[in-house]
């Protein structure tokens, strides 16, 4: 059974299909701290995509366009991070971008 992020059980995207994403915007989606799976993020106008592994609140780059980073100190990038149960992506690149996010993985059931 497919469910969106923020629910318990299998998580299958797209979680955020098309979101207008301007400079310094941060897009946030609820995600359990114990989520285990992959994140695919894309920026339509830049033909940029990134594949990330998420394990227990930690994000690791598997393969990503050079415009993506998990390091907040790097300017002019799309910053992907996990903060207190929320997956966040911040646009440090420019205005009028279209962000797409899909998550594939598991969140343990609590009941």
Description:
This protein is an all-beta fold. It has one domain: Immunoglobulin-like (Sandwich). The protein contains no helices and 10 strands. It has strands at 9-12, 16-21, 26-30, 36-43, 48-55, 58-64, 68-69, 78-83, 86-91, 97-107. The strands form 2 sheets. Strands 1, 2, 4, 5, 6 and 10 form a 6-stranded antiparallel beta sheet that branches. β4 (36-43) and β5 form a beta hairpin. The two termini are 16 Å apart. The model is unreliable at 1-7 (pLDDT under 50).
- CATH class division: Mainly Beta
Give the overall average pLDDT.
84
Overall 3D form: globular
**Architecture per CATH nomenclature, i.e. the level-2 architecture:** Sandwich
Q: Give the assembly state of these chains.
A: single chain
Cα-to-Cα separation, first versus last residue: 16 Å
Please write the string of helix (H) and strand (E) elements.
Answer: EEEEEEEEEE
Tally of contiguous helical segments: 0
The residue ranges in which pLDDT falls below 50 over 5 or more consecutive positions are 1-7
For the largest beta-sheet, the strand count, sense and barrel status come to:
6 strands, antiparallel
Strand content: over 45%
Number of domains: 1
- DSSP summary, beta strand count: 10
The Rg value, from CA coordinates, equals 13 Å
CATH topology, by name, is Immunoglobulin-like
Structural class: mainly beta
């Amino acid at each position: 059974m497919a469910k969106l992020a923020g629910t318990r059980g299998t998580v299958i995207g797209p979680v955020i299909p098309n979101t207008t994403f301007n400079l310094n915007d941060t897009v946030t989606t609820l995600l359990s701290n114990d989520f285990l799976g992959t994140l695919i993020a894309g920026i339509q106008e830049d033909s940029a995509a990134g594949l990330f592994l998420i394990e227990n609140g930690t994000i690791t780059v598997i393969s990503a366009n050079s415009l993506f980073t998990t390091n907040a100190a790097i300017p002019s990038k799309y910053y992907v991070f996990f903060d207190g149960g929320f997956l966040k992506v911040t646009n440090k690149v420019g205005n009028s971008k279209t962000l797409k996010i899909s998550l594939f993985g598991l969140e343990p059931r609590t009941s």
